[in-house]
Amino acid sequence: MTTQPTSEHGMSTRGYVNVAVILAAITSLEVSTYYVDFGPLFLPALLTMMAVKFVMVVSYFMHLKFDNKLFSWLFYTGLFLAVGVYAAALATFHFFLR
Amino acid sequence: MAETATAQPATAHDAHGAHVTSTGLSNVKLGMWLFLGSDCLLFGGLISTYMLYRGRVANGPTPEQVYDIPFTSVSSFVLLMSSLTMVLAVSAAHKRDDRGTNLWLTITALLGTTFVGGQVYEFTAFYNEGLGFTTSLFGSSFYTLTGFHGAHVTVGIIMLLALVAINKRSRVPGSKSETVEMIGLYWHFVDIVWIIIFTLVYLIPV
Lengths: 98, 206
Prior knowledge:
The complex is a heterodimer of chains A (98) and B (206). With 98 residues, chain A is mainly α. In chain A, 68% of the residues lie in helices and 0% in strands. Chain B is mainly α and 206 residues long. Chain B contains six helices and no strands. The termini of chain B are far apart. At the A-B interface, helix 1, helix 2 and helix 3 of A face helix 1, helix 3 and helix 6 of B.
């Protein structure tokens, strides 16, 4: 089987700039949580924004959205394995009960 | 009986010169994604260790006493923009625009250097405020986590500048656009790790 060409899909320059603008806006919102009292929404909002930025960079800048699904499988397997293992490790230290 | 030996090429190529692989995917790209998946485990360990120890301040200053959120926010923005310039470099490489590729790679390296400079300044400031590597568990875990990230960024900068130099001599082996793309993947990974670090380390109070 021959190799597929490096993804010919993907975005235009304007598309990448748009993604960067969105990321910058979300970063500004994240920083605003330092100055503005979000109350009980503070942690969920911050973690959600972090996750959204993460997925946007991985999907668009790293091209995972447009590439073969095997690459997504490889990366997210490592990621969820890391999250699972270290969540378990933290749980043994009663981190989530604090 | 004479046997006719047919020489096998060291690596098989199709009619278009592309490598033949069992998955149909580039081994280089597959290897890079595997590496990034494994690097998640490295940073997962460092981040979770920091989360465990960030409140452990027997000596020295606490996180709230040393963190400069406005300064770190600017650093974060710089690294975020470097991801944009990196993807523009990859895009230029796909269009076989060598000049554009080198320009965007150089700008990415400059932004990365700015970020690392900011980290060095931050470490120096924290040290002067009494937070050393062995001052407290918070200090040890903080410097280890952000130090490893900074080292990753530094390696990335070296790779970017090396690629610019090699590209200028037109000595990039194999597919030039794939080479740029692989370094791009590494650079974006470094950025997404910082996205997590910035939120968990700096923005979430102890």
